[in-house]
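Dear colleagues,

As part of the handover before I leave the project, I'm documenting each prediction I ran so the next person doesn't have to rerun anything. This entry is a single chain, and its sequence is reproduced below.
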Amino acid sequence: MRAMVYRGPYKVRVEEKDIPKIEHPNDAIVRVSRGAICGSDLHLYHGMMPDTRVGMTFGHEFVGTVHDVGSSVQNLAVGDRVMVPFNVYCGSCYFCARGLYSNCHNVNPNATAVGGIYGYSHTCGGYDGGQAEFVRVPFADVGPSKIPDWMDEEDAVLLTDACPTGYFGAQLGDIVEGDTVVVFGAGPVGLFAAKSAWLMGAGRVIVIDHLEYRLEKARSFAHAETFNFTDYKDIVVQLKKETDYLGADVVIDAVGAEADGNFLQHVTASKLKLQGGSPIALNWAIDSVRKGGTVSVVGAYGPIFSAVKFGDAMNKGLTMRMNQCPVKRQWPRLFEHIRNGYLKPSDIVTHRIPLEHIAEGYHIFSAKLDNIIKPLVVAGQS
């Protein structure tokens, strides 16, 4: 089969690999029809994530058709169209029993925090991902779901990470009716977080970024007010002015490890790898939320130290909530919103890239060329 293969920072290519085999009776093999490149994949591409090994296939957002199933699989059959959450999880451990699928205790021998994630380094379990023609899906009776007949395949692929993660970011904010919500980052997760904030009763939604074409999308897709932080000497001061000098009720960090805006912090994190992620967006969130407010973090960070202003968070009495999204927990409500016409996830898709051209796709997405917001990977026939 053809698969994207990592060869080192900024080096990916398509190679022939063996089609994965059933390794456990509860495995399924899925023939991928649509995948995606995620902003989180860029952290891998840029060498930000520890233990990203040469030869690994990335891709934690994918849908496709069941090609084979293990002997104990009961909920899926060959030929079923399925959507697969980015979380690999067992469904029965202490954490899964509490809905914390992203913190499963049985699927990742290399970490005490995150569970398993497809195509996201050996820090997250070492599972090959879906930027390939085929992928092995463990615990096939637990994670994947059949794509509803009424759902478009491109909406389904965005429900495997980006859309639920944005929704989860708004959910973690405990938004109440009338709240002012600020979202840092106008990438796919930030766009979905902003859109979701309205669904949860926000009275005002503001999105911050430095790329004008992404801010335009935040206005058209999420109906948000927008600010380009490069237009202001201090974006935190501007946000205070916008909120009667109190601060926002809820701030969502949808940027994560490669936040720009402070040269020294960006270099020490993104270039020298001295931090687990550039803390700029998170520190702006802490500074721009009101006292007693809530900071929600769904931007991805690495496992090592980051210079976060924790003293300020403590002294302001902030609630800080964060996690990798437990995707399947969000699906029932998101299915409802999509079917009722309140949300169309595929509206943010800007590029459809054949698998054989994925190296170019990574370059375009990394360099933010051609007004790219969300690239899908066309791996095979629908």
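The longest helix spans residues 327-339. The chain has eleven helices and 17 strands.

All the best with the project,
I.
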